[in-house]
Amino acid sequence: MPNTILFPLFVDTQAPITINAQIAEQIKLLIAIGDLQPGDTLPTVTQLAKHLKVNHNTIAAVYNYLIESGYLVAQRGKGTFVAHTQVVQNIIIHKEFYNLLGQAFNAAVMTGLSPSEFGAAAYAQAAILNRHAVAPLKLVFIEYSQHSTGVYETIQSEIKLPLLFLCLEDFKINKSKVLKELLTADLIITTAQHQWEVTRLTAPEQEVITVNLKPDLQLLAQISSLPRNALMLLICQEEVTCKVMKQMLQQAGISHINFQTLDLEYLQKNQKILEQADAVCASRHVENWVRQYSLQPSEVMVFNFSVDETNMSVLKARLAAIQLTKSAISHTNQ
Q1: Which residues 6+ apart lie within 8 Å of 218 measured at CB?
Q2: What's the pTM value of the predicted model, to 2 decimals?
Q3: Which fold has domain 19-90?
Q4: Hey, what CATH topology would domain 215-305 get?
């Protein structure tokens, strides 16, 4: 955990933005550039307030904001940590944004602008440009749990647009907050396995596009070579994901294998079950764990998959059409 004295945060009372915003944005920047990583501990409210010479309530408000936004997580009696969430992954993925800001600031310094003047000028420029800019599409991807991020990452790398990741699990925990995000989306993407569940949650006028997942061809070849009635364990973080894996393999034409699905927790308590299996296939999220328990770790298959090419072509075409419509409406209203 970063030492409080060395924790690189600063407050400028003359800056044109609030102290709360200054501290919050600096913490987000440290996360983006890797100085703070998921799991790292932040100073306590009291420590950081003393270090920055600001009110205790100011730091508490900043931490609460970052917790609600998904950047931090608090554990009673243990402290406040950088969260392992998709929000954090997104800001790390798009850290180039901060690199561009750094380049712009260096250019501003050469013209004699102070940090405060640069911040004010940047805001003024953004405000003017925003009057003529078309609002970006709000795209939402929904899967069962946080452990389904592999599909999300595959889709985001293909469409190259910001994509908000929501979990069906989250609707049980904080339905109103997650539903608000969902109902304001321009387009909703999910997998075919969860189409019915997602459609029930959306507004009638909202569009939901589903994508089909296909097991990797090399994986199918490996499984196809197994003898008839061989016992294959399918291991994931959660039982529901294992069942999806089984369904995908069967839909791909694998019918001669006896599949047994089990989650990682069950495996940890019943490691001997690996000795009874003819083959083991694990999701990418639990691969390393499974190899630790396996008698032949090199023979553990990894469940790799791809998104159906036709589905992806349809998705990209719809994104282009929706963006074009939105741009036309924006120009009409100006």
Answers
A1: 304
A2: 0.55
A3: Arc Repressor Mutant, subunit A (1.10.10)
A4: Rossmann fold (3.40.50)
